[in-house]
Each structure stands twice: as C-alpha cells, then as structure tokens.
Automatic annotation (TrEMBL):
Gene3D superfamilies associated with the record: NAD(P)-binding Rossmann-like Domain (3.40.50.720)
Residues annotated as transmembrane: none
UniProt GO MF annotations: oxidoreductase activity, acting on the CH-OH group of donors, NAD or NADP as acceptor
PANTHER family documented for this protein: ALCOHOL DEHYDROGENASE (PTHR42901)
Keyword terms: Oxidoreductase
InterPro entries per record: NAD(P)-bd_dom_sf, Sc_DH/Rdtase_CS, SDR_fam
Species whose genome carries this gene: Solitalea koreensis
Name this protein carries in UniProt: NADP-dependent 3-hydroxy acid dehydrogenase YdfG
Protein family: Belongs to the short-chain dehydrogenases/reductases (SDR) family.
C-alpha cells in the first residue's frame, strides 16, 4: 500500500513494486491520476491494483477506505507512508496558519491515521513492513522551513516509536530521509509557481523520484530478518540542509 501515489516518489514506488510483481493499493486525492496509473500498471505488469481515493487528513474518509478492504487486500505486507507536502517558505513571524495546519494534518496526523488502521492488520498476521517518508528536514532545520521541518521531525520520532512498539510482532519499520528530490514537491510548496519551483533545482543534479523508489525497494526486498531503521539519502551536491555546492 502506497499513500500519495498520484505523483513523485509515490508514483515511482508504485512502478518499481509493480515491476517486481507486487499487487498494489495506491492512494491519493486525485482520482483521475490514480485511475490512469492503475490501468497502466495492470496492463504493463499484469498485477492487481486497487486505487483508493481519500484525503489523508480526514480520519472518517481514511477509516471508510481501509474498512472497505476485503479478502487478500487486507493482507498488507508493506505500507509506504509517503503522502506529504510542504506549503510556503516563510519565517515564523509571518507564516500562514492555514499552511501550518495543512502540513501538520497531512504529514503527521494523516500518517498516524493510516498507521493506526493498517498496523493492527499487520500485528494480527505478525508480519509487515512500514516505510515512513521522513526528510533531511526531519533531521535538521533550515531558514523558513520551521513547520515543515517540525512535521518531519515528528515523522522521525514516530518512526523510532513504531519500531519499538511493533518489535514484538515481527514488523519491520524504516524511515527514508531524502534531501532534494525533483518532483511536484516545490510546485506544491510554492502553490503552483512553476518558475520558482524550477529554480530550487537549478545548478545541481537533484535526486529523482526513481532514486528514492529504488532505495525503498531495496529496503523492502531485504531478507525479513534485516531491518534498515533509517536511511538518509542526498544528492551528491547537497551535504545537508545548509551546505550545497550550488551555493558555493
Ligand atoms: P509530490 O508533491 O510529487 O507528491 C505528494 C503526494 O502526496 C501526492 O501523490 C499527493 O496526492 C499526496 N498527498 C498530499 N496531500 C495529501 C492528502 N491530504 N491526502 C492524500 N494524499 C495527499 O511530492 P514528493 O513525491 O516529493 O513527496 C512525497 C513524500 O516525500 C512527502 O512526504 C515529502 O514530504 C517527502 N519528501 C520529499 C522530498 C523532495 O525533495 N521532493 C525530500 C524529502 C522528503 P494528491 O495530491 O493526489 O492527494
Ligand atoms: C524535502 C527536502 O530540504 O526541501 O523534504 O525540505 S527539503
């Protein structure tokens, strides 16, 4: 099950897992994109795909979606908690309360809602793997990144906490913490300003969604007694949130 599969890292994960013969539950709000991806993956790779359209911020919607799973679809082997976003890049004294609420509701509460509903299915089967998309922003902070960074620090903490809580049940828990990945992330952050978004990745080679999907697949495909607790992965040109060779 991959949340946020309509774009970027989630979509790339859907493709690589499909190429490796995994049946998929893919989720997101944009039904048209989910339908298109579903059809593509089914045709190209002969796997089964179940698209589920819901807003991860709305617990009732999430509950109905997960509650609708029947038969083998309840046997979720891998949950990729990927849906997430940043909104704005403003100092703490000027940030938008709406943006802050959306980031916290999506990146923290949405991830919790899904995990609360899917982890019992894994606990029951004493098997599973939860892969949480953190960020370098969950390890460090950067100017004007305040609430996005805080939300990803929360993911870092939740990843460690899940690892401990799910230890008795043979469930693996992994966080992937990427640096800059060129997806729709910056278009969303800058609210559709494509020029501004493009500039973020100018002058260096950013990671691609496929780079992250490959890494996630690597973690998932390891033997079941091997758990990568967390992995930070950066473009070669970016040491951390401060040091980029494009900045001299
Ligand atoms: P994209 O914007 O390309 O994709 C984000 C995905 O999240 C979309 O599929 C979107 O689907 C989904 N999503 C967002 N809000 C909601 C919501 N309320 N309900 C359901 N789904 C939602 O960004 P990325 O692929 O780059 O981001 C994926 C994850 O990786 C995020 O958690 C991000 O924080 C993290 N990350 C990204 C980095 C980067 O530089 N790109 C670096 C480090 C981490 P839809 O709009 O259809 O609902
Ligand atoms: C996305 C990476 O550095 O733009 O999580 O916050 S960064």
């Amino acid at each position: 099950m991959i949340t946020g599969a309509t774009s970027g890292i989630g979509e790339a994960c859907a493709t690589i897992f499909a190429q490796n013969n995994c049946n998929l539950i893919i989720t997101g709000r944009r039904a048209d994109r989910l339908q298109k991806l579903s059809a593509q993956l089914t045709t190209n790779y002969g796997i089964k795909v179940l698209p589920l359209v819901f807003d991860i911020r709305n617990y009732d919607e999430v509950k109905i979606a997960i509650g609708s799973l029947e038969g083998e679809w309840k046997n979720i082997d891998i949950l990729i908690n990927n849906a997430g976003l940043s909104l704005g890049l403003d100092p703490i004294d000027k940030g938008s309360i709406d943006d802050w609420n959306t980031m916290i509701d999506t990146n923290v509460k949405g991830l919790l809602y899904i995990s609360r509903l899917v982890s019992p299915l894994m606990v029951e089967r004493k098997q599973g793997h939860i892969i949480n998309l953190g960020s370098i922003a969950g390890k460090e902070t950067y100017a004007n990144g305040n609430v996005y960074c805080a939300s990803k620090h929360a993911v870092d903490a939740l990843n460690k906490a899940m690892r401990i809580d799910l230890l008795p049940y043979n469930i693996r828990v992994t966080a992937i913490h990427p640096g800059a990945v060129e997806t729709e992330f910056s278009i969303v952050r800058f609210k559709g300003d494509e020029e501004k978004a493009k500039n973020v990745y100018k002058g260096f080679e950013a990671l691609s969604a496929n780079d992250i999907a490959d890494t996630i697949y690597y973690c998932a495909a390891l033997p079941s007694h091997v758990n990568i607790n967390e992995l930070t992965i950066m473009p070669t040109a970016q040491a951390n949130t401060v040091y980029w060779n494009k900045r001299g």
